[in-house]
Design goal:
Blueprint lengths: L2 E3 L11 E4 H9 L7 E7 L5 E5 L12 H12 L4 E8 L2 E3 L2 E3 L2 E5 L7 H13 L4 E3 L2 E4 L35 E8 L2 E6 L7 E4 L2 E3 L11 E6 L4 E6 L1 E3 L5 E5 L4 H15 L3 E2 L3 E3 L7 E10 H10 L3 H16 L5 H12 L25 H15 L1 H6 L1 E2 L19 E8 L2 E9 L5 E9 L4 H15 L2
Parallel strand pairs: 7-9, 8-10, 9-19, 10-20, 13-16, 14-17
Antiparallel strand pairs: 1-2, 2-4, 3-4, 3-25, 5-8, 5-21, 6-7, 11-12, 11-18, 15-16, 22-23, 23-24, 24-25
Helix pairs in contact: 1-10, 2-5, 2-6, 2-7, 3-4, 5-6, 6-7
């Protein structure tokens, strides 16, 4: 590649940039305003920057911000860390009757699922408990929990990427409704015995084909203080297969409670108490501790799938680890900066707002992304590389490069918002060289950012 000073006459404003002619031509041909674009390409081995454009300009990073959160958490906790959730009881057990409460202490494990709650119930039954005369108490004090169920970042209020964190998370903060033709009618029920929201089913069954207006019901949502009411209407063919809706409809601890209650009963444990929110009381006895999968796997899912909820939990857990709980967004942001500070990867213009990038307040320069990825690769090697989305294989890049020379040659984190299209990670050239790459586009018509990223990454693979 031949590297030149970007011709000033090609753009409205002067720029300080060193780019190969092929990149210059691509930018000019796509009519991209260079003020909206930042490019950094670094030889990973030597650390030499071999191509740059606006490398230190702070930009809205979108989900590329997650690499800062993930790296800081791996440094602080270690790749083998497993998230605990503790089950306690208090009171006395006599003749199969527990006269007292069951207490669940959450530490923000974002991966807690229905199968884990079933395990809790079975564990209680294994101790000979056949009846609980008391309540289920949930301790959520590890986080300073928001009263909101959704971040409300955009109009898709109930979408999973808008879900708010909670110290007692359950099923990714998602509520499930299954709609199915059955015995000539259309049934609609909440899965996992979840009564944390209400369903009004007005769907009428038809005999016609399952297509058009008869293939999907009308779904309307009505906000309440701590949950959503769901109204199902319209027509649905009796020939349709079952439909499963999943949205953020209530508090996760509430869904957890109803599932736990159901699994207790299924395990032969009678329970007629209620849900209480409180810290673990003095004198409570530890019954069991459930552990998540290793942090390495949770980080990989966070980065590959760009999971906002997981990233928020990583972020808050770091804040709690560094500065005590309840974890807050403020002490989590401070914790990221203090953890990464000794690595020299952050600049004064960087701001990690909520750890996941779902923010227009966050700022990160592409050079910061370059520094984070190089430092993380030095510390964690192939594990860090494999935690990123692999082009044409998995995560957010599974389809993007599926039929391209780039397939299996790029390991990257993407980030997309209304006016941001960013990518950062590693590109393996055909000659075997590993390049550290960050391309940030902040501006209108974000498809321009995607197109120039695809062209530049393809150029680098062909090197």
């Amino acid at each position: 590649m031949i590297y030149i000073l970007l011709p000033l006459l090609a753009f409205v404003a002067p720029l300080f940039a060193t780019l190969p002619q092929s990149m210059v031509d691509a930018i000019v041909n796509d009519k991209i305003d260079p003020k909206n674009l930042s490019i950094v390409v670094q030889d990973l081995s030597s650390g030499t920057v071999i191509a740059s454009l606006n490398p230190t300009t702070p930009r809205v990073p979108a989900s590329v911000e997650k690499i800062a959160t993930a790296y800081a958490v791996l440094l602080e906790f270690g790749a083998d860390f497993k998230w605990p959730t503790q089950l306690y009881y208090r009171g006395t057990l006599k003749s199969g009757v527990l006269h007292g409460d069951i207490i669940v202490k959450g530490y923000g494990d974002p991966t807690l699922r229905a199968k884990d709650v079933k395990e809790f119930a079975q564990k209680i039954a294994s101790f000979g408990v056949r009846k609980v005369v008391g309540n289920i108490v949930i301790d959520r004090t590890f986080f300073k929990n928001s009263p909101k169920i959704s971040s409300g970042f955009d109009k898709n209020f109930l979408s999973e990427y808008n879900a708010m964190p909670d110290a007692l998370m359950y099923n990714d903060h998602l509520n499930y409704i299954q709609i199915a033709p059955r015995n000539g009618i259309i049934t609609a029920q909440a899965l996992y015995s979840d009564k944390s929201f209400r369903i009004s089913n007005r769907i009428k069954a038809t005999n016609g084909a399952c297509r058009g207006k008869n293939a999907w019901p009308s779904v309307k949502y009505s906000k309440r203080s701590d949950h959503i009411d769901v109204v199902l209407d319209g027509t649905l063919s009796k020939r349709c297969h079952k439909i499963t809706l999943h949205n953020v409809l209530s508090k996760p601890y509430s869904s957890f409670y109803y599932s736990f209650k159901s699994y207790l009963q299924a395990s032969g444990v009678a329970f007629n108490g209620v849900l209480k929110l409180s810290a673990v009381p003095k004198g409570a006895k530890l019954l069991m501790t459930h552990y998540s999968k290793p942090l390495e796997k949770i980080v990989a899912k966070t980065l590959k799938k760009s999971n906002n909820l997981y990233a928020r939990h990583l972020f808050l857990a770091l804040g709690a680890k560094r500065y005590g709980y309840p974890a807050t967004v403020e002490n989590a942001e401070r914790a990221v900066r203090d953890t990464l500070g000794p690595k020299g990867v952050l600049s004064t213009g960087d701001f990690i707002d909520n750890g996941c990038g779902l923010s227009i307040r966050s700022r990160m320069s592409p050079m910061t992304a370059i520094k984070i990825n190089r430092s993380a690769y030095r510390d964690f090697g192939k594990m860090w590389l494999d935690s990123l989305s692999i082009a044409g294989v998995d995560g957010t890049l599974k389809k993007r490069f599926a039929h391209s020379i780039v397939k299996k040659h790029a390991f990257m984190k993407t980030g997309t918002l209304k006016r941001a299209k960013n990518i950062a990670g590693f590109v393996k050239t055909k000659s075997g060289r590993l390049l550290n790459v960050a391309i940030f586009y902040n501006g209108a018509k974000i498809w321009l950012g995607r197109d120039i990223q695809n062209k530049i990454i393809t150029m680098l693979v062909r090197e």
